[in-house]
Design a protein that fits this description.
Shape: globular
Structural class: mainly alpha
Mean pLDDT: 78
Strand content: under 5%
Distance between the termini: 35 Å
Number of helices: 5
Low-confidence stretches: 1-15
Strand order of the largest sheet: 1-2
Largest sheet: 2 strands, antiparallel
């Protein structure tokens, strides 16, 4: 990663730890792609552990930050209550829990970047929606 991008995508959270938006985004994308492949239990556990750390950091930041657009307190409470629970022992629960933690992390990251005006849309053209009745 080049220095400019590393400096641009990393902010320091109130907790003093750096928030690397690019790394967190990559972890979220990886976790959400698990629906289309069959990862091993170890790969799911490693991804969940990384997401757990990201969520903990972003959750602390969301609770401490005074923002003109405060996050949904009910969702923050649900995420907080889910944090202490370890990854389930069965594959079915693991397949359900990892994407949910990724969506929670995605929501917290969106709040974090919006509160700092760091949101950057993806470059490139936007694809047109397929017409009704036609396959894309």
């Amino acid at each position: 990663m080049d220095t400019e991008r590393a400096q641009g995508s990393t902010a320091t959270a109130v907790s003093g730890l750096p928030v690397d938006v690019e790394t967190i985004s990559a972890t979220i994308r990886k976790a959400l792609r698990f629906g289309s492949i069959r990862p091993s239990r170890e790969e799911l556990a490693a991804t969940d552990e990384a997401l757990h750390g990201h969520v903990a950091l972003l959750l602390a930041e969301a609770r401490r930050t005074a923002s003109p657009h405060p996050p949904d307190r009910y969702r923050l409470d649900r995420i907080s209550k889910h944090m202490p629970f370890p990854l389930g022992k069965g594959m079915l629960s693991t397949y359900a829990e990892v994407p949910q933690r990724a969506r929670d992390c995605q929501w917290l990251l969106a709040h974090f970047t919006a509160s700092r005006d760091e949101y950057k849309p993806r470059p490139g053209p936007v694809r047109a929606a397929p017409s009704a009745g036609r396959r894309a």
